[in-house]
Structure formats: C-alpha cells, structure tokens
Design brief:
Layout (H helix, E strand, L loop, with lengths): L1 H16 L10 H12 L8 H25 L6
Length: about 80
C-alpha cells in the first residue's frame, strides 16, 4: 500500500506547502509532472520510510485483531 500511496502523499505535501502568494504548481497533475521532470520520478518515493513506518504497525495490529475477532465469532481464520 505504501508504494502506491507515497507519490500521492508527495504531491499533496508539495501542494499544501507552496506559498499562497507565489504558486509553484497549478494542480495535482502539474505538480506530478514538474516533480518528475525537474527532480526525477524517484523523488515521488522520497518519504517512503516514514510513511511505511506509520502504516506498517497499524496495518499489522488491525489484521491481528481482525483474525482474533473472527476466531471469537466461530469463523475460520483466513
């Protein structure tokens, strides 16, 4: 999930952090194109580790709780 979310998170962050008086990007597509053109496409995954470290524990806990609840309800584990 993090691999697909990271580029969108980068674009969202850039759009939110641009100065109000001097717009750098017109919209999300413009931001995406300018990042890829000026800094290279790998820049879209620059914040991968912080995003992954935020999502991984939450997802793991959710899956463990889900499996435990299935067991308590008499359903087979997936």
């Amino acid at each position: 999930m993090t691999c697909t979310v990271s580029p969108f998170d980068m674009v969202r962050t850039r759009l939110m952090n641009q100065p109000a008086d001097a717009k750098i990007y017109n919209n999300a597509v413009d931001c995406f194109v300018k990042i890829c053109k000026n800094e290279g496409p790998l820049t879209l995954w620059r914040g991968f580790m912080p995003i992954w470290s935020r999502f991984a524990p939450t997802t793991t806990i959710q899956l463990v709780i889900f499996e435990q609840l299935r067991g308590l309800m008499g359903m087979k584990s997936m």
